Amino acid sequence: MQSPSRAEAFISDICEQFPKYNLLDTSTFDNSSIKRGLRNSDGTGVMAGVTAVGTVRGYNIIDGDRHAVDGRLIYRGIDVEDLIAGYQAENRFGFEETAFLLQFGSLPDAAQLRAFNDALAELRVLPRGFTEDMILKAPSPDVMNKLARGVLALYSYDERPDDTSLHNLLAQSVALIARLPVIVAHAYAVKRHYYDRESLYFHYPQDDLTMAENFLHALRPDHQYTDEEAKLLDTCLVLHAEHGGGNNSAFSCRVLSSSGTDTYSAIAAAIGSLKGPKHGGANAKVLDMFDCIKAEVSHWDDDDEVAACLCKILRKEGGDGSGLIYGMGHAVYTKSDPRAIILRQQAQQLASQRGMADELALLEAVERLSPVCFAREKGDSKMICANVDLYSGLVYGMLGIPRELLTPIFAISRVAGWCAHRIEEVMTGGRIIRPAYKAIAPDRCYVPLSERSNTI
């Protein structure tokens, strides 16, 4: 067995001493009225700014108390349910006009939508040598990390990367919306080749296809997909495009933007935030949990058996041991998450066609039984609802999209919202975002090196 390096030995030894000087007394948070997670004691978010981009409504405050209401997701004043119903009634794809709405503040007319689609088609072509130099030569087992690196690398191909004029911010935003799906598709192809020992192929985007169609075209070796599949993916993109200024990734983007940094740095930070399992990475956690439930429960239509499994998860005796039922509960939504409702409804037909109706029914049982199990195990009867992650993973599975791409797909959609928030922050924010932290380290005297007695 190879002995550890000097660096590894040092880190292992110093870990034993680290807690003595660095672990915080958590009672300090309560005693100092610290709002952990920038959330008030009643669960509402600390007000940090204003936005016209998007909003999430899950409760009303009446006489200082929260009252649950049906969830609503609103883009530039338009309810996302109305947005989706509107373009689907005309049998059209909707992500492009949703991205236009978020970026420019209004729905496009027919000529504007054609011009926007033409601009996206032109900008989907990555800079010469980009795939070879930035993706092929440095493969990554994680597509999100490669996506963040790819976005940062685009800085080097931009003639005015630090220009924060409105014209340049809009140009950068449209280019990022167009290029992120291509970077993700290429990064995944390279990952499959170098880490999974699969054949390497790149399918370049087609000018006459929508974002959803192009992604399926790039992902599948035979380029084949159905109109129903593409439109279901399109719905997913619309539902993930924006979620208000307070979600972790949008806020990360706004924090960096408030410092005056470049667009690529701000968007890469948002990608890093979204990767986390408490944010965009939760969809993969749902699928891992779902695998455990399917293995544990013999009769998927037996509510008692499903409930027993969920209770085990809450007791940290099942699942990943976290005690969390992934896909249930949300910081804002209380009675319902409109995204989960829409995905569940629109996935039913494809689930039947793909022989996955039983899986969908089992997820619906998880949604129905989780609040009961939560009250039983935690003694807390607060209202919790399914969030979008409960159903998005199954939907992507029905579309043949691998788990490694669940969060990257989230990112290629959400970049439309991030860019809108960045422009709003740069144009109207005016001040660098800088919250305060209470310092609790005791004063100490400097001790000369010869008199120190710390031992490792």
Give the strand content: under 5%
Give the total of beta strands: 3
Structural category: mainly alpha
Give the helix proportion (percent range).
55-70%
Distance between the termini: 24 Å
Compute the number of helices: 18
Strands of the largest sheet, in order across it? 1-2-3
Helix/strand order, N-terminal first: HHEEEHHHHHHHHHHHHHHHH
Major sheet details: 3 strands, antiparallel
Radius of gyration, in Å, reads 24 Å
Mean pLDDT: 91
**Low-confidence segments:** none
- Which overall shape is indicated by the principal axes computed on the Cα atoms? globular
Summarize the structure.
The chain has 18 helices and three strands. Helix content is 55%, strand content 5%.
Description:
This protein has 456 residues and is mainly α. It contains 18 helices and three strands. It has helices at 6-22, 27-31, 80-89, 95-104, 110-123, 130-136, 143-154, 166-196, 211-219, 227-240, 248-258, 263-275, 282-296, 303-314, 338-353, 357-378, 389-398, 406-428, and strands at residues 54-62, 65-75, 78-79. A three-stranded antiparallel sheet has the order 1-2-3. A hairpin with a 2-residue loop joins β1 (54-62) and β2 (65-75). It is globular. 39% of the residues are buried. The model has no long low-confidence stretch (mean pLDDT 91).
